[in-house]
Write a structure and sequence with these properties.
There is one protein chain. The protein has 13 helices and 12 strands. By secondary structure, it is of the alpha/beta class. Strand 4 and strand 5 form a beta hairpin. Helix 3 runs antiparallel to helix 4 and helix 5 runs parallel beside helix 7.
Length: 349
């Protein structure tokens, strides 16, 4: 049995583990599982799946999910349907205090519902700035200015922290300026480092200073700074994020199956490049047929102790309460009230 976490977070096919997937998860190169809509039928089923995953080894595997709100929310039905986070920016523009209070409450609410199902971390919040021409970001961004994004993201992050869940700030150093969807193609941002630093990086600086647990780099090439996409770039991950910003948490790659990453070579080559650049954890979300080959050729070297510590710190806090009892929680009720009030005030959402 593995005595430490590996460096791969992988997807699985359905709502229950298959035998070959159990064997994958027992492999020492694996650190966790990322879940999608295909893995969800109900809260009870999700809780059973997460318990099954966590029982496989010690330290227990990490379980993550994209749970931003709006169109990026993998679990619905019994879960609170969260608005796109741009709604928080619109509310903030109308009433700054109410916007910040609601952002903190929704960060807590999202994290609490996930934690009650034994999900460890959510890949949120999005810190990208909405420049108005990137459809894959769009309403996934809080606002159109770095200051407003920083303020709202800090509040949302504080709510997640209060619940006991690690936040994953994305997509460093900022994905909002390009128009290409990196799921579908290669994106290039030709702005100067100074421009990116003064605008897009400001929310990341704010959350690093607030102690954010993890950061996900973008699969975007910032060509004035480096020829490699940020997620494969020693410049962005080591010189900027680690050294200049002083970030001490985990660096988690975006999905290595995205087209902007595929351009870097085979899956095995992409994993090696991401790790070499400085990622502590790499995501392989949907290329399930490639996982056996990837595990067969996985490095057997021991995980760096510092990297191991960063990953262990991502485990969610236990004891937040049963999902079916959350409606009795006064904080849950207050968050629902704020959500209803926001939806009443913002007809566009």
């Amino acid at each position: 049995m593995a005595s430490q976490l590996g460096y791969l977070m992988i997807g699985i096919a359905g709502p229950r583990l298959k035998q070959h997937e159990r064997e994958w998860l027992a492999h020492p190169a694996v650190a966790g599982v990322i879940l999608f809509q295909r893995n969800f039928e109900s809260v009870n089923q999700l809780q059973s799946l997460c318990a099954d995953i966590h029982s496989i080894r010690q330290p227990r595997l990490l379980i993550g999910v994209d749970h931003e709100g709006g169109r990026v929310q993998r679990f619905t039905r019994e879960f609170t349907r969260l608005p796109p986070i741009a709604a928080l920016g619109e509310l903030y523009a109308k009433d700054t205090r109410e916007g910040l209070v609601t952002a903190e409450q929704l960060g807590w609410l999202a994290a609490t519902e996930l934690l009650s199902c034994a999900i460890d971390l959510s890949f949120a919040p999005v810190l990208d700035i909405d420049y108005g021409h990137n459809q894959v970001i769009s309403h996934r961004a809080f606002a159109a200015s770095g200051y407003e994004v920083s303020e709202l993201a800090l509040a949302f992050h504080q709510g997640m922290q209060r619940a006991g869940m690690a936040a994953v700030a994305k997509h460093f150093p900022g994905h909002g300026y390009v128009s290409v969807d990196t799921h579908l193609g290669v994106a290039e941002d030709s702005r100067s480092y100074l421009s990116i630093e003064q605008q897009d990086m400001q929310p990341f600086v704010a959350l690093v200073n607030a102690g954010v647990s993890a950061i996900m780099p973008a699969h975007v090439i910032y060509s004035d700074c480096d020829a490699e996409p940020a997620g494969f770039s020693h410049f962005w991950l080591q010189r900027v994020l680690r050294e200049r910003l002083g970030f001490e948490g985990a660096i988690i790659s975006d999905d290595l199956g995205m087209q902007a990453a595929v351009a870097k070579g085979s899956l095995i080559e992409r994993v090696a490049l991401a790790l070499e650049a400085g990622c502590d954890l790499v995501l392989v979300c949907n290329d399930l047929t490639e996982i056996p080959k990837l595990l067969d050729q996985a490095s057997d070297k021991a995980q760096d102790p510092l990297s191991q510590l960063r990953l262990i710190r991502l485990h969610g806090r236990k004891g937040v309460g049963r999902f079916d009892k959350l409606k009795l929680n006064s904080d849950w009720q207050a968050a629902q009230h704020s959500l209803q009030s926001m939806q009443t005030k913002l007809a566009s959402f």
